[in-house]
């Protein structure tokens, strides 16, 4: 028989020292059989004896070789299942089986010259090679580590890591994301009346705070007021500014000054002076959205100074904030406007709109809705939670799916009567894995950041999280755009088309969620306090934001 390189020798080589004893024994029996039937070429006397016993040899061949081939194949498959990472050369079947024994064929063939013995292939793994490669990678990373350490050391006196809540927040714009305002119609109408013709119309400057929990709808309410036609006709100058975590009055003044139209005979001066000149004879509405805190009350008073110079009455500043303390401090009204959860009937309409869209549930959905309303009660009247969980349920209008959502253990982590983070985490858990990766890495984007699709896709490509799967006809850019649209559809991204370009933002609570799920490997560091917190050894991605 012609001995082929990569047959029985490969089988024996594929059994490592740690393989189960029964596999080694099975291979041993097969090799014992092969030694009986397939021993090395014999001397001439033994060949003559073999010729005389040809018929007997044929029987042995027919009985042993098939058993060898069948048993070896079965055992190799069994061992191969236990060695998914072994690097063995593939066995090629070119259709030429001339070397295999057939009834009546000669028992042995001569081995090729210089190949008197076979060599078992080595596994494709070398500790030395891997160690050298890791050493080279570490050496390449040393300069980057040195540069990062120098930056952190230089700025260490004014930097710290982001805390768990509210530190990495996206920028908001005046563009309303939701076409309809649920459960706030009465409040919105009262505010519009008061600022255009009611009790604030005759005041020189009114600061109106809107206070509420994250995700309760403060920004959405302010957006609907800002875009109301009556409001836009009433105010000559309208400005929307998302206030960063670090209240910087100088930067805020410059931003506002850039958005106020210039006037004739304008004199050069500071941002404060220019604002005073430009709004002197114009009624204005300024929205300061998502205001967190400021270290010095005098800074707030300084911000108000140029706006008090207007000679027209009825000027309004709307401030949205989570902080009741801040709302009390900035208000000029009797009480801030406090937003709470939407009442159950209005919230039900909002929830169903996110689940069924423009369609109305039918009688076929009766049993489904019984489970849906139980889920709705866990959302604490939060529009943000209704949006993410509602769209999760919309993806599969099946009772089993809705029941799994209702019975999820994630709800057990709910703390307090207003905690919606479990609802957001549950929606995240049900995202496809590739969307989870794309969303979670966005925790590295700086606060108040509006990113465009091209930048985001290049970022994902760099992180190697865009994969074609079964969509081989799509480019990686097409896959990235599809993922962006899917994240918008699931409620994790908000689309923003202001300033002539499309962009995307993430709600601050969803940004907190992204930071939470990637806290073991991603860290965003930004200018916000006087100390730099500890950085975990497991951190692999670090983003540093400079407030320039």
Automatic annotation (TrEMBL):
Record carries keyword Repeat: yes
Cross-referenced InterPro entries: Apaf_helical, Disease_R_plants, NB-ARC, P-loop_NTPase, WH-like_DNA-bd_sf, WHD_DRP
Keywords for this protein: Plant defense, Repeat
Gene Ontology BP term (one): defense response
Limits of the NB-ARC domain: 202-357
SUPFAM superfamilies reported in the protein's UniProt record: P-loop containing nucleoside triphosphate hydrolases (SSF52540)
GO molecular function list: ADP binding
Domain Disease resistance protein winged helix: 444-514
Protein name, UniProt field: Uncharacterized protein
Organism: Setaria italica (Foxtail millet)
